[in-house]
Amino acid sequence: MADRARSISSAARFGLTESRAEEELRAAGLWGDTGPISEHEVTLTALSRTPDPDLALRGIDRVRTHDPESWPELRAALTVDRRLRGRLLSVLGSSTALSDFVAVRAGEWRRLRESGTAATGYTETLLGAVDAPTTGGPQGSVAALRGAEAVRALKFAYRGLILELAADDLGHLVEPALEEPSYEQVAGRLSDLAEAALRAALAVAWAENGGAEAQERAQLAVIAMGKCGGHELNYVSDVDVVFVGEGDTTLATRVASAMMRVATEACFEVDAALRPEGKAGALVRTLDGHEAYYKRWARTWEFQALLKARPIAGDADLGRAYVDAVSPMVWIAADRDNFVADVQAMRRRVEDHVPSQLVERELKLGRGGLRDVEFAVQLLQLVHGRTDESLRLGSTVDALAALGAGGYVGRSDAVELADSYRFLRTLEHRLQLQRLRRTHLFPAEADTADLRWLARAAGVGPDRGRSAAQVLVAEFRAHGNKIRRLHEKLFYRPLLAAVSRVPTDALRLNEKQAAARLAALGYTSPDGALQHIKALTAGVSRRAAIQTALLPVLLDLLGGTADPDGGLLAYRKVSEALAATPWYLRVLRDEGAVVQRLATLLGTSKLVPDLIVRAPEVLRLLSDPKALTDRDPAEVATSLRNAVNRHSYLGNAVTAARSLRRHEVLRVACADLLGFMDVMSVCEALSSVWSAVLQATLAAVDRSEAAAAGSHPATIAVIGMGRLGGAELGYGSDADVMFVCEPAPGVSDSDALRYAGRVAQSVRKLLGSPSQDPPLQVDVDLRPEGRQGAIVRTLESYRTYYKQWSEVWEAQALLRARPVAGDADLGARFIEMIDPVRYPQGGLDAAQVREIRRIKARVDTERLPRGADPTTHTKLGRGGLADVEWTLQLIQLRHAHAHPALRTPSTMEGLTAAEAAGLITPADTAALREAWLLATQVRNAATLVRGKQTDQVPTMGRELAAVAAALGHPSDTDAGAFLDSYRRTTRRARAVIEHVFYDD
Fold this sequence. Notes:
It contains 45 helices and 12 strands. It is mainly alpha-helical. The strands form 3 sheets. Strands 3, 4, 5, 6 and 7 form a 5-stranded mixed beta sheet that branches. Strands 8, 9, 10, 11 and 12 form a 5-stranded mixed beta sheet that branches. A two-stranded antiparallel sheet has the order 1-2. Helix 13 links the parallel strand 4 (about 240-245) and strand 5. The radius of gyration is 41 Å and the shape is elongated. GO terms for molecular function: [glutamate-ammonia-ligase] adenylyltransferase activity; [glutamine synthetase]-adenylyl-L-tyrosine phosphorylase activity; ATP binding; ligase activity; magnesium ion binding. It catalyses: [glutamine synthetase]-L-tyrosine + ATP = [glutamine synthetase]-O(4)-(5'-adenylyl)-L-tyrosine + diphosphate; [glutamine synthetase]-O(4)-(5'-adenylyl)-L-tyrosine + phosphate = [glutamine synthetase]-L-tyrosine + ADP.
């Protein structure tokens, strides 16, 4: 027992674990009484590198047993011939089927000593096996062998060539000095071998059906489909074919059937199910029959199958004619209704047929499997290959490279997907070689022996304490996850469906036709649009290639906006400005939602394109509505303050504040125009950003001034007034504020006021300096004594003023006051101080009510700009913002002392409180609320459309259409109807105001 254990341990040095290993080594003459024979150690070392040393040793023993005459020669050759050693042992340790072949065919191992048969010699070799001339007529050769004799000869010849190919494929595992072929080389040679086998089988079929005489009565062409057509065949795979015949089609059908039988019995299964009507259809059709079927009846998947079609045997002229006839139909298949959706549905059906317990192990059909790659690549080819002939390739890997080179897929995505595809195909090859059976199933994790074998066969070794099997499982999962992620990114890309909806003819127009199509899409200056297109697509750069793919979709999308010409010009400006931004075009290409939403924004707004150029990072958010809308105002304020605090130089600090405000304004504008935010959320977000800018800038200036003064003489608070105080700012609104200060202990009021005045003036100057962004004007006109009064007062000064001198309009202005920046405690005490002023005990007397009505009447007649239409002026027009706000504010001044819910700076909350208190009817509240919200929304939209602050609703043309579209009105409806609706809504509100504001 001890001797047996020692012998096993000794043999284990070479990876041999079976109990009979040493016995077999002795029988082979490789092992002596004390261990391995020295001259054969090199053979045993090579044996240890095979995927399964025990399997390889059994193969050697079988060769010795079945071919004892050549065994001494082989044993000697293994010690000196590195090429033979690596190729033979790798095959014996990887494939039981090929090991059987080498064992039962005496001397077969000798073919591995030579360089082997080149792919160009496969046809000659296999035709020779069936005794057919290598130079046949147009229909191919006619074999001398027939029936079972031909099948047997072809089978052994084909298996011998497979042996050579497998030896080339695996030899580097045993002898690293041997060249490792690429996956493409192996798949290509397998495809060449299959072609040669079909030609030989066809030669036998002709021989069995009349020979050369029959070839004069019928023509037959064999068209390869699937992996053989794509020149990417597996070791064991169905070979998909389609037959085309002319002349005596009955004879052609008999020949085709015979060819399939011979090839299937000798080499591999031949499958003709991809023919028209599938297995229910005629095996052989004429060229006209094929053409008629594909024109009238073919389904989407059939054109996808034709993507790889190529003639490989039979009548070459007929084969070329077939491809010439069907190819044009393949490359317009994407024009079919629901083409992209049909292909996507087909992939889901394929995946659904995989048993749930195997879906994670299926190399071919499962999630993250080979079909994921192939479907994604084929869909991209069919959609973009309509105009780009460089994509018309059969090989998946070649097509992926072309898609990457053409900009249709990101370079890194194309490389990663191709690498993962090669990895899975390599595993598939190794699994099929083991028994020369068709399989695509990755071993279960419990099958450690199978995993260990597969890892060694695939060249995967141990790493960082993990066994080779564990590394293989991890890599398999990683590649599968990567494939699935990229598949979903590419295969379900919304842009694909949009591109497919652009007719092929529209992608191939000459300049005159293109101008006509642009005019039909709604471009008023087609010639100008053509110049923009030429500028964007000029040259042979990758950027130009991506633009070429994007523009057909973008032109259609812009054509559906209010201003296609302006949108295309804006797109050109944005693209040129962001030309050096590496991710810009990648985001547009890979995120279809971004293109669609960007087109809407560019074709609607003049403000958004200008902001995008200076805040391009917001483009990334367009793919995710939540990213556009779900930004916490407190988070925004914190980010802004932190960014400002990082800069010691005041100018840089304010620049940082402006930059973050620009980003936030653009984010909100995009969400607003795309319908992801309601009007109140927009106003609150803009007000929050303004407050954060004021807070950060005030802190920076205060810090700078205090450092210069050597002390901190006063605390300062900023009180928001007007729309800022009510959190109801629009895109171009000024910030109405008041500054209040409080002296530090031991500091006089005058010193504190001088210091606070410098800070306030600096804040106004820095924020109000010229900029391309929406203006940042800090307006202090609502302070006591208006423009004649001091910009900053102490809290006590304000108290004195409001107690002795304030007028009723100032109390009205204070209704919207709230602290927005600076010292929070000082701001709170200011609010506490003004509450008795703005919510007077007992309300207003009759004279004060008349005064407010008099001022309102003056505003109506004097403040409305000259030439403005009072029915469409959102701020001062009839039923507009001022009407609603003055009405509510009069109610607040009169009744807030008795109804605490009215004590709010928010217009909407105030109207709700007034209704709850019974001070206004629900119907009147609804009319006022609807008019105020609509006027606010229209004012914001008009500012975005025109690119500058405006209070006037456009009354005609593209601007009116753009404002209507921004408010959600369908682009195919009359914008005048929107204008009528606006006037009708504000007219109802004005009627309410007449009796609520002016009647007692």
